[in-house]
Design a protein that fits this description.
single chain; 4-stranded antiparallel β-sheet; 4 helices; alpha+beta
């Protein structure tokens, strides 16, 4: 069986219990087809980059799935029909990551931020006139053309 990471976005007006019921519904579909769901992470309500079906926010949920492709295809078909699911994405992976996902880690643990990488190009200060080298003299004939 193949390993998948599956993320879906549910409408913001659903309660956390209703989102959990969706997860259990899809878990039943996966297990009926001979697969299993490992870790399930509820990332909570997050803002969307753009509106989807008049929703500005959504419940994000990650599921690690170990199942045949037919089971994943059936879950995707059912999610496409559901009005509660706004978007979903399934990615096949070589192995599931251990520990919390990047979304569940604290900001301090994620890695360097922009200000930790050093100064930006425009943070070097004002330019001095002598940085460009000697100035070329202009003849009156050049500007008259």
């Amino acid at each position: 069986m193949a390993l998948y990471e599956h993320v879906f976005l549910a409408r913001q007006d659903l309660s956390p219990q209703q989102v959990e019921a969706l997860v259990e519904q899809y878990r039943g579909v996966i297990e009926e087809a001979g697969g299993k769901i490992g870790r399930v992470e509820n990332w909570g309500i997050k803002s969307l980059a753009y509106r989807i079906n008049k929703n500005r926010k959504a419940h994000y949920t990650l599921m690690n799935i170990d199942a045949p492709a037919a089971a994943v295809k059936e879950v995707e078909r059912q999610m496409g029909l559901s009005e509660d699911v706004l978007r979903f994405m399934t990615i096949r992976v070589e192995e599931h990551e251990e520990g919390p996902s990047a979304m569940m880690q604290r900001r301090d643990d994620r890695g360097p931020r922009r200000d930790d990488r050093g100064p930006r190009r425009d943070d070097r200060g004002p330019r001095r006139d002598d940085d460009r080298g000697p100035r070329r003299e202009r003849n009156n004939d050049e500007g008259a053309a």
